[in-house]
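User: Please look over both lines:
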Amino acid sequence: MIAIGNDHTGYALKKAIIEYLEANHIEYKDFGCGEVTTSDYPEFAKKVGKAIQSKECEKGILICGTGIGISIAANKMKGIRAALCHDCFSAEATRLHNDANVLAIGARVVGVGHALKIVDTFLNTDFSKDDRHIRRIQMLEEE
């Protein structure tokens, strides 16, 4: 299951991503803002992060204006590896090499069509499980 969260600036893009998820029969849980009234992105990053930490959801998608703030908020949480991606190469690389479990996207940076390709790449790329990448992820998890 995919956890999806957004602030007010990511509301329209979230709706498009949900349409993609539904069209591809991908289960999701919406933890995001349900309107365009001003909201605070850390709140939604925490909800998505907690859903992943508890294993309620396997991966997450976070959306704010630039994707920067919401990814910073998510990365403060233990076990969350949020990657801000504005292209398919980065989305693929972060899954292959970093086993990122959260994709962050900037709604004011990436158009809807391109964002959907990024989401598709992120969700359909598996972690390489190469020893060097496993070692690096273990290093990230150390306190």
Remarks:
- The longest strand covers residues 59-64.
